[in-house]
Write a structure and sequence with these properties.
two-stranded antiparallel sheet, 1 helix, 15% helix, 4 strands
């Protein structure tokens, strides 16, 4: 668990009396509700520089090559991240609930 947030009722559901700050302390049992959130997605721009070196032995100039991942390998993951970053949270919900334990 990365973070725990405690929620206490503000007032009694029976008579409406507000609970004081002293009453809002952890008790024996409590309900649990887990929420998973994706961290913000960002793009990392990397510049790959290919340098040329001249051989002292034969005089030939050689340029370094760059190996790139196949677009077919990278695109499904990129599309999934874009889709998840644009997913809408249902009205009235702070985030998507994953599971509830009792």
């Amino acid at each position: 668990m990365d973070e725990i947030v405690d929620h206490y009722p503000v007032a009694c559901r029976g008579c409406g009396r507000e609970f004081s700050a002293d009453e809002r302390r952890p008790g024996g049992r409590f309900g649990r509700h887990h929420v998973c959130e994706l961290p913000p997605i960002s793009v990392i721009l990397v510049e790959h520089r290919t340098h040329r070196l001249g051989c002292r032995g034969c005089g030939v100039t050689t340029t370094a090559g760059v190996v790139f991942l196949e677009v077919a390998t990278v695109m499904p993951a990129v599309l999934l991240l874009v889709y998840l970053s644009r997913a809408e949270v249902p009205a009235g919900a702070a985030a998507w609930p994953v599971a509830e334990q009792r």
